[in-house]
Amino acid sequence: MKLIRSILTVGGFTVGSRLAGFVREVLTASLLGAGAASDALVVAIKLPSFFRRLFAEGAFNASFVPLFAGLLATEGKDAARTFAEQIFTLLITILLVLVLIVELFMPYLLPALVPGFEKTPERLYYAIEFSRVTFPFIFFISLTALYSGILNSFDRFAAVASSPMVGNLAIIAIVFGLHAQFSSAGYAFAIGVTACGVIQWLWVLYPAIKKGMYLRLHRPQMTPQVRKFFVVLGPAAFGSGIVQINLFIGSWIASWLPTGAISYLNFADRLNQLPLSVIGVAVSTALLPLLSKQIRAGSLDEASASQNLALEFSMFLTLPATLALTLIAHPLVSAVFERGAFGSEDSLSTAYTLMALALGLPAYVLIKVFTTGFFARQDTKTPIYTALAGIVVDIVLSLLLMGSLKQIGIALATAAAAWVNALLLGYLLWRKGHLVIENRLLMFFPRLLLACLGTGLILEGLNDILAPFYEGGELMRASAVMGLVITGLAAFFIQAYLLKIARFHDYKGRFAS
């Protein structure tokens, strides 16, 4: 079984990507702070990201990867490549039309998406300017997703997992080289985002060609495989669209908050995304093609074992990460972002927002794992219903809490909605007979919670001891936080070993199999 090895391959490169992303966010905080240009840049990146979830991630992967992997396993490489070429042609056609329309109507689209910006004309001006530069990113990142799905189906995860890291490094290089050339450094970041899409596409194109998957344009044909692709894509796109609409509703709500609130949410989310990306995305990326093949081959016991292992492995890493992000949020934010235009008050506001978001971290990862169980069976409808329930909770709580808690209320609403979504997904997966909880997993969770409790007590005590160092310079703050993190990790793994949670010898055996 190669599941854990695949997870660690994806997760390892994702760590590199997120570290590069941290450098990018540190640059953003230092050069833009939490002001009008920073808020506008967040919106300019969210706009192509909205369509990215449709054309380049969840919905597309849920439709393309199981069909492509199935054809590859049953009919061979030629049939799979023909199918990929048909989707390639349709994707390019749709994306070119989309980019042209959005670019033309950008001055009318942005005021509708973030109406609160009209009260601060500087934010609206920058949002329109930056969005026109960033939006072509969707074209290149969608092509990246197509070739990434092909490579993942061949169990080639390294190039796919490393491409975001290369893209982030490109953004950093462009910002360093160009930020002084513009009236606002936000323009350099916007150029870097689109360049990032181009470089990520080229990064996965070459290994795909080496696997014999050079895709050519064809006249679009509605073959049985293409029809099936759209039958699966429709509900998945609708579901992803609902989730993205919810995110824009969040931006719509946040646009009415004072300048800086959107930036606080963004910086907090970047820190929260590190464990989510390393764990949740890595697990789901490795699990989807494996489950698809096992289910297609009728190996249902193996599929169940894979899903249980994914749950155990992901929670083993997620719960301690949640603990750390809530207990040491302020020193962590201060060490990462507090410099240049980003001051101590910005650190405190971002830290409280991070604590609220982190409460939902286990749920975000569970959603990734549970959704994969449905997608591997080409069931894209069920996740729509659970997402809708989460969205209702998110919107209602955001409106109720934003008045008193501002962006912290929106973060709490997001975390609560994630738990509603995750619990419903898990229940329905179990109800359909696709999730069978093994005794090993039932014995695992109480011991994991005990190890987290012990680690939390150690972190609390050490946090008090190191508090004076947080008031020092950048190097002193960073050293104190690094010491806190290393001690916390050591304490957790020692307890995990003593409580026999991780079963390291078992994981080692699974690596070799």
Automatic annotation (TrEMBL):
InterPro entries: Lipid_II_flippase_MurJ/MviN, MurJ. Keywords: Cell inner membrane, Cell membrane, Cell shape, Cell wall biogenesis/degradation, Membrane, Peptidoglycan synthesis, Transmembrane, Transmembrane helix, Transport. The chain crosses the membrane at residues 87-110, 130-150, 157-180, 186-209, 229-254, 274-292, 313-337, 349-370, 382-402, 408-429, 441-459, 479-499. It is found in: Cell inner membrane; Cell membrane. It is a multi-pass membrane protein. Its main location: membrane. Pathway: Cell wall biogenesis; peptidoglycan biosynthesis. It comes from the Bacteria. Belongs to the MurJ/MviN family. Involved in peptidoglycan biosynthesis. Transports lipid-linked peptidoglycan precursors from the inner to the outer leaflet of the cytoplasmic membrane. This is Probable lipid II flippase MurJ. It comes from Candidatus Bealeia paramacronuclearis. The gene is murJ.
